[in-house]
UniProtKB/TrEMBL annotation:
The lineage of its organism: Bacteria, Pseudomonadati, Pseudomonadota, Betaproteobacteria, Burkholderiales. Residues 15-60 form the SpoVT-AbrB domain. InterPro entries: Antitox_PemI-like, SpoVT-AbrB_dom, SpoVT-AbrB_sf. The keyword DNA-binding applies. It comes from the Bacteria. This is AbrB/MazE/SpoVT family DNA-binding domain-containing protein. Keywords: DNA-binding. GO terms for molecular function: DNA binding; toxin sequestering activity. Coiled coil: none annotated.
Length: 86
């Protein structure tokens, strides 16, 4: 998790980027938002504004990075570890 706090608005300019338009985001702004280069974002329009948020990861995305090293230890499939009765 990252800290969430608000800062004063930052003014940026929409610039041409090939046949599209782009806005540059400073490293500090990304850090404060808990975002980094390469992350997927969701962009939506809300009455007169653009809203960027970290994209929700799909189950396929989560399973793709799953390895034996980052899996949880025994849970309900392990042996009884207290007063449980299976």
């Amino acid at each position: 998790m990252h800290k969430q706090f608000e800062r004063d608005a930052v003014r940026v300019e929409i610039q041409k980027w090939g046949n599209s338009a782009a806005v540059r985001l400073s490293a500090l702004l990304l850090k404060e938002a808990g975002m980094q280069v390469g992350q997927r974002l969701e962009l939506r329009v809300e009455v007169g504004r653009l809203v960027l948020e970290l994209a929700s990861e799909s189950l396929d995305d989560l399973l793709a990075v799953m390895t034996p090293e980052n899996q949880h230890g025994p849970g309900l499939n392990g042996p009884a570890m207290g007063a449980e009765v299976w």
